[in-house]
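Hi R.,

As promised on Friday, here is the backbone we talked about, encoded as structure tokens. Could you run it through your design pipeline when you get a chance and send me back a sequence?
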């Protein structure tokens, strides 16, 4: 059975999700699925994967969405058509990686956007609703996303709306013992004080994922935090200058990391992972960090409450200010307990179960 994954960008958690799913399908013990991908050349898939190249429109996010929506229906010989971004064509499976409409409403609730922004919102929101309504199966990564679709779009499709929680490959993301952690801090990140409290942010949308709000919350706290370091992994040209200006006003060092190859080590070396997102499917970084022993401090979004049991395997915060309070105030003894709980949770979210859940959906579509 051939399955074609459609994706319009090679950056961010959505792309990592697709790469992980394709890898799991290729490594599955049972034969039967032959995955291929229609997406950017830079997607990291194995040479065995048939790759149909899509060239993103880099100049503006909305333009890329419309280009992809217009071009993707013309791809032929696809087998099961599995979309991870919006399309104007036929859809067998649509995986909801957060909701554009929910994200836009959260971002613009406190200001009046310009006319063209409102026009783009109306058009893309309609396209999103079309995909949710016409896909044979819609996969949500959280109950929250399904509830938003039900409340805002008035869409309820029993039997066609399903939930598959994210998984993590624990062979790639894993913890290290304290001695190795201390040595890796010195050898891999020599520019950062090794005995500091390391706070990590990972995300390609500094506003949507909450970095700007978190930095502003740090700025409100006037007390000295010399033994703190913030590591930032993400690509967001539109908001980078604002983030750098905020960083310069803080009384501890902030490091913008350009090399994503260091991210796995950063998970292992950091004490806490911070996120204040306005909309998520199920944040990839959450399970990656937990599997590596990095304690998550997240506000509720997407599948956070379905993954974090606050005080057991992480901390659920009410706001960016609360994230900062917890990141600076949680004692080391509690961090150690939370880290162990995070590792145990991630171990239960295995890739094999994740792959089988999708396989069952594909087979049900083929049988109809």
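Update: got your reply. Pasting your designed sequence below so it's all in one thread:
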């Amino acid at each position: 059975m051939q399955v074609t994954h459609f994706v319009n960008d090679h950056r961010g958690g959505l792309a990592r999700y697709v790469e992980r799913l394709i890898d799991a399908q290729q490594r599955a013990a049972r034969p039967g699925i032959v995955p291929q991908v229609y997406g950017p050349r830079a997607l990291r898939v194995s040479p065995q994967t048939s790759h149909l190249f899509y060239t993103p429109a880099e100049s503006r996010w909305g333009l890329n969405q419309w280009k992809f929506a217009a071009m993707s229906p013309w791809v032929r010989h696809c087998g099961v058509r599995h979309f991870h971004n919006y399309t104007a064509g036929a859809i067998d499976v649509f995986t909801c990686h957060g909701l554009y409409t929910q994200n836009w409403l959260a971002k613009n609730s406190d200001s009046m956007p310009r006319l063209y922004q409102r026009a783009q919102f109306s058009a893309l929101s309609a396209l999103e609703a079309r995909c949710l309504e016409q896909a044979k199966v819609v996969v949500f990564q959280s109950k929250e996303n399904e509830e938003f679709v039900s409340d805002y779009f008035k869409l309820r499709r029993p039997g066609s709306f399903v939930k598959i929680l994210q998984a993590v490959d624990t062979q790639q993301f894993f913890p290290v013992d304290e001695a190795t952690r201390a040595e890796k801090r010195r050898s891999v990140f020599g520019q950062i004080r090794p005995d500091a409290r390391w706070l990590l942010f990972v995300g390609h949308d500094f506003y949507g994922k909450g970095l700007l709000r978190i930095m502003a919350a740090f700025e409100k706290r006037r007390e000295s935090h010399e033994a703190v370091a913030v590591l930032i992994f993400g690509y967001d040209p539109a908001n980078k200058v604002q983030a750098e200006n905020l960083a310069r006003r803080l009384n501890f060092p902030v490091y913008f990391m350009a090399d994503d190859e260091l991210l796995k080590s950063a998970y292992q070396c950091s004490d806490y992972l911070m996120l204040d997102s306005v909309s998520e499917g199920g944040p990839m970084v959450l399970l990656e960090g937990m599997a590596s022993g990095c304690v998550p401090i997240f506000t509720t979004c997407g599948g956070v409450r379905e993954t974090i049991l606050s005080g057991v395997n992480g901390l659920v915060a009410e706001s960016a200010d609360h994230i900062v309070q917890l990141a600076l105030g949680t004692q080391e003894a509690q961090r150690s307990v939370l880290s162990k709980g995070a590792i145990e949770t991630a171990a239960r979210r295995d890739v094999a179960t994740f792959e089988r859940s999708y396989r069952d959906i594909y087979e049900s579509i083929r049988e109809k």
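One thing I noticed while checking it: The mean pLDDT is 91.

Thanks again,
M.
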